[in-house]
Amino acid sequence: MPESAHPHLLIVGGGFAGLWAARALAGAPVRITLLDRGNHHLFQPLLYQVATAGLSSPDIAAPLRHILRKQKNVTVLMGEAVAVDSADRQVRLADGDTLRYDFLLLASGATHAYFGHDDWAPHAPGLKTLDDALLIRRRILSAFERAEASDDDAERKAQLTFAIVGGGPTGVELAGTLAEIARQTLKREFRRIDPRQARVLLLEAGPRVLSTFPESLSLKAQRQLERLGVEVRTGSAVTHIDADSVMLGDERIATRTVLWAAGVAASPLARSLGVPLDRAGRVPVEPDLSVSGQPQIFVGGDLATLLQVNGKSVPGVAPAAKQMGNHIAATILARIAGRATKPFRYRDWGNLATIGRRAAIVDLGKLRFSGFPAWSFWLVAHIFFLIGFRNRMVVLLDWAVAYWTHQRNARIIVGRDD
């Protein structure tokens, strides 16, 4: 069969689900177009390291064209999908063009959710993209610079107060690393301020941080954060954020740097499918990850929601997205061959989160541990899953230097806030 007669799979999103689906179809009788707004695949679990100056952008990202350069059945396009026309089997792009498909995989991920307070977004950036990470890094480092330049004690205190909203993995990672920067990395670099006096607050509306972990590990994580100097405030719902402060009920905390790690919402692209969505805007998918009534359309990663046999939803984590991508590839091949499809089964390999240097927690089911052993496990796991030999070597070298010197070599302020 000539290549032009092969069915066309359009993948929207070059994250874990989309990229793993494309790679699983190497050599298959399928024409693949991979569409993404950027030109790179991003290793999101280490995005906070870019935001806190521990790593540079290329350390955790790689060009999609380079990753897929040897896969002849893939065409990579940079563009933004804005709507799906399932009747005509085409996707409309932001520039007005359309792309037709025989099979469609939507894996466009998630964005920030401010629970109806979108006016908070300019004052409390979230962390989903490299642009977000560079913005956060600029705001963190600029706060120390402005404190050094200020002659007003109240303003200095506000500049040196950092509030992270949300006690999930991203919030915990940001808070722990920020405390280390203030107390170790910057401690001898300023003359008019003492960075060690910086106040780092982690604000969680729920009763504990890292609520997806067992309570015993959650409590250990909080104790490790507090040893690093983080002020953990649980049961503290944010009621207002502006350029000068964050409000917890009637309590006003003066701060010039608020970081958002409290909620996510699915990509708005899902709305054009014409199917009911869950409260976060995700698509409830069939057991084989296809869309109800539209078997040629699949949804993977953070955009999909599916209940497991244990009654819990498949978590929005990288291992789940990779498994979804592989499963969707196998399902497409089964459809082409006229075979029955199999339901998706998520294999949970465990859950882990880092808090700071020599501090982390790991939940592998029956095996749970924390502290330095957990941090070592976390480090090895993340090095292993990075794409590309160069990425692994550079990150390993940077972390080795940071471990022995407390230095963070990407402390360059780029760009300018409007």
Question: Summed up, what is this model?
Answer:
By secondary structure, this protein is of the alpha/beta class.
Set out the fold topology.
Layout: E1 8-12, H1 16-24, E2 31-36, E3 40-42, H2 47-51, E4 61-63, H3 64-67, E5 74-78, E6 81-85, E7 90-93, E8 98-100, E9 103-106, E10 110-112, H4 130-149, H5 153-159, E11 161-165, H6 169-185, E12 199-204, H7 215-228, E13 230-234, E14 238-241, E15 245-248, E16 251-254, E17 257-260, E18 264-266, E19 283-284, E20 290-291, E21 294-299, E22 304-305, H8 318-337, E23 351-356, E24 359-364, E25 367-370, H9 372-385, H10 389-405
Parallel strand pairs: 1-2, 1-9, 2-5, 9-21, 11-12, 11-17, 12-13, 19-22
Antiparallel strand pairs: 3-4, 6-7, 7-8, 10-18, 14-15, 15-16, 20-21, 23-24, 24-25
Number of helical elements? 10
Strand arrangement across the biggest beta sheet: 5-2-1-9-21-20
Give me the CATH architecture of the largest domain, please. 3-Layer(bba) Sandwich
Integer tally of domains: 2
Instruction: Give the proportion of residues in helices.
Output: 25-40%
Structural class: alpha/beta
Proportion of strand residues:
15-25%
CATH structural class of the largest domain: Alpha Beta
Mean pLDDT: 91
DSSP summary, beta strand count: 25
